[in-house]
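User: My instructor asked us to take a sequence, write out its structure as tokens, and then describe one feature of it. I'm not sure where to start. Here is the sequence I was given:
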Amino acid sequence: MVNTRTLEQMLDLSGRAAQDSGARRDLVRRGLLATGGEAAQAAPALAPQRGAQMGRSARRQQDILDNWAMLDFATRAEARAVRSHDATISQLARDPQIAGAFDVLRTQLLQAMAANGWTTIGVTSPTHGCGGTFVASALAASCARREDLRAILLDLDLQRPTLHEAFDLEPMGSVADMLAGRLPMEAHLQRLTRSFAIGMSDAPFTSPVGVLQSDTAQSVMSEIRTQLAPDIIICDLPPLLSGDAAIAMLPQLDGVLLVTDGTQTSPRDITDCERLIAGKTQLMGVILNKSDDRDFERFNPRG
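Assistant: Let's start with the prediction itself. The structure tokens for your sequence are:
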């Protein structure tokens, strides 16, 4: 069960339209936006500029495609051989009913992110065992089903990396090495589809906070956003109440999803997590995992 109230508030289109209208009037007043006849008169003069902009845009898109092409295709752990699209998507997210629920979450999340100009979100939980990696994997698989999306999934639970097990893939080194600048982005990230890539770790890293908070890590994340231009980066984070690694990463995120366990998470746990998130990033929603809500039939199973 997903609490989407925060996402819906971010998508208050009527409020945003009024805000956009005020911004438009301000641009017109300052002479930065032409209207009506002014725009028509300016059109011939702007034509060469538009042509140049379109040329730059085409080159930019080709650069992005070339950068994605540099990433190797992921290999299965037991065979170390390239497999088909269906074989490489996490089995835990391919059940039609579960997939339909996560497709709804994906669409709401992407709408909220587009409205705010965001690209990077984290998935965390109060404690271990709440299902944060499950949610991150299933959400990423949902994004992978949208061929028009560019999506990246990163395992930032550096002390207890498990994404490679969830997807049954062979990691190319460690995410920590990539964030520390010891491993180039194109040598670590692996494509599962044409426009979905994953970064995993082959072994635990004992001192994650120093890496996550470093200027080098921020530069690497910026390079990923610039070179690959993903629509969404999903970061699988460690639990918030089990150490300070997730807290160290929060300021680099545009928003975070909090995954709770319906059988063990207490209201106090959620309150403590909200307090830790406040002022560092945006809490985009709370997901209740392992609840008694099993009414998945109302969701469309197609992505």
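For the description part of your assignment, you could build on this observation: Confidence is low (pLDDT under 50) at residues 1-40, 79-89, 294-303. Try explaining in your own words what that tells you about the chain.
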